[in-house]
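Q: Predict the assembly, please.
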Amino acid sequence: MTLITEQGAVEDRFTRADTLEAALAADGPVLIPLWLVAEYAKVRPQAEFGLSVTGSTAIEDVAPHLAKVSLVAVEFAAFADGRGFSLAQKILREGYQGVLRASGPLIADEFADALACGFTEVELPETLANRQPVQQWLAAKDTMSDHYQSGYGRGPSILQKRHAARKGASA
Amino acid sequence: MYRYDEFDERFVRERVAQFRGQVERRLDGSLSEDEFKPLRLKNGLYLQLHAYMLRIAVPYGTMNSRQLRQLAHIAETYDKGYGHFTTRQNLQFNWPKLKDVPEILDLLADVEMHCIQTSGNCIRNVTSDQFAGVAKDEVEDPRPTAELLRQWSSLHPEFVWLPRKFKIAVTGAEHDRAAIKVHDIGLKLKRDDAGEIGYEVSVGGGLGRTPMIGKIIKDFLPKSELLAYLEAVMRVYNSEGRRDNKYKARVKILVHETGEDEFRAMVEEEYAKLDGPTINAPQEEVERIAAYFASPAYETLPETSATLAKAQANDPALARFVEQNGFAHKQPGYIALTIALKEIGAVPGDMSAAQMRAFADIAERYSFDEFRVTHSQNLVLPHVKQDDVPAVFAALKEAGLASANAGLITDIIACPGLDYCALATAKSIPIAQAIAKTFADEERQKKIGLLPIKISGCINACGHHHVGAIGILGLEKGGRENYQITVGGDASEHAALGERLGPGIDAADVPAAIEAIVETYLGEKQGGESFMETVRRTGPEPFKAGFTAFIESRTLETEAVG
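A: Predicted assembly structure:
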């Protein structure tokens, strides 16, 4: 697995576990599926952990856990399955401020969209990272300087920039 | 007409560079064929039966002469010297080479055009009324809304990987010429009781293999809330639309399976949660866009032109052209003219490079440098001075563009069909040509009156056959092309799906079957009723009976010969 942020490749602090035994045996924070959260939290109430959910998960099922986790990984079934982008927006709307990971066979061409929808990192299967190395991801995220949609990404949208420019001009 | 500012310009240029990079990364193996496919589709590049096809966006069908001249240049340099206008107000080139595509995109960017989202599972090019800004029955010009949506939907970070394609149409008029009820989202500008302008929002219309009429999910949406509300609709669709079966992935299926009320509740719930002010366009920005669509500098003229009346009296062909192809203009002394790309025997929607240049000259000189593309694969000169109509008619005739058949039985919509398309199961264009030849006589066409025929060469319904007054669907049956005929389809504010008349027939029998349907109409017709008015009154039964009689007579003939 390769983990990529806006700055480049980074180490993954989290260990994936999908049984309680594996989660308890792991060193450092674990990344566990939704159904394991209650069991794990009972045994390790103070431990830092991450939550893994599929793109099709309802926000109502995710929201109750957001205050307790430092990572949410949204699993993409395929690069062309955009449900994860909408789930990311819903998670942010709940006030979540931790790490938001897009995980799965995404392609570099989606990096800018993932970041604009609120993801902070992407976790790729090794085969994909070999074909599309980190440099391609970093280049792809900067191909478009601007976006039209307000409420996405960090910078102002084109509509907001025009608005600001006109205000500045008339001031 | 809208003009790009520095942001739009850079956006389109960077999109071209991005696509060029994607082509390179496909060639060096970084992108697999499966990954590259949706990327090229989102930039309008299809792989057809014989070659690539490039679909160019004509946002809400509006163009100027400089753009059309550039298309003529591209057609001659990179294609076979012609282009094809589609039922989505776009233009397709059927023979470009992959290696030339980035260069073509550069040339398009030079004239403020692009291929962004003319295909793929994303929000497609927004369509509108070809008589926007012209029609007398308009509450408000729909083009500023369409342009705002073009910008908002371009590379939307959240909605580029939808379950399926998504089409939005906008109308500002009472009479719906944009077919909003057969779109994924249909927007109709209207006034509420207080006189405020807003939108009636329909969701879940569509044709294809499961045709459906859109459901009104919001009776009145204040104009300023448009983008946030559409974002709510899109988010519900992106999250809940089916991804297990591409034939059930359109939003119409979600609306149908969820139920209209439940779907409305889901959208309202999402809408209540999202932060409208951070999403909606600033009022000043909406006004900035709208200012581009202000009326051109019309002259003050009398309601009708004596010059034109006199010329019509002396030239019956001109009179017929004005009567058939003219559309009443809101400005006294002006007229909008439909240019039917439907010469008898020609391919519906095709235009040669020479015709493009001639037409660009006409639009520049006589229509404030502007023209429109219609979803009936025709063109419109929106602002012609009535005094100039004789000169315009002469110039159109010279270019082979003066067919006086707009809306008549020979003004046929046809998809590319088996002649071009990889999905087609039957020919479409030759059927249109055969019908046009059968009804070539102008007097006969006039007697029959308005009768839009629409032909699709497969179940995907690109020819909109479900909403043709007469619809023809070509299928493959036991190794033979087989055609099903419907009547009563309507894409206007009386939106309705056509009803099948009986079993499918052979290609060779189609023109005679259409003649039989026309005979039924002429027999049933009361007073000045149009074909559609008659069908609405009588229902399909007499047409079914006529069609059955036609099939029986055919069978007897065949048996007699055999």
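Residues 4 and 64 of chain A are 27 Å apart (CA to CA). Chain A has a mean pLDDT of 95.
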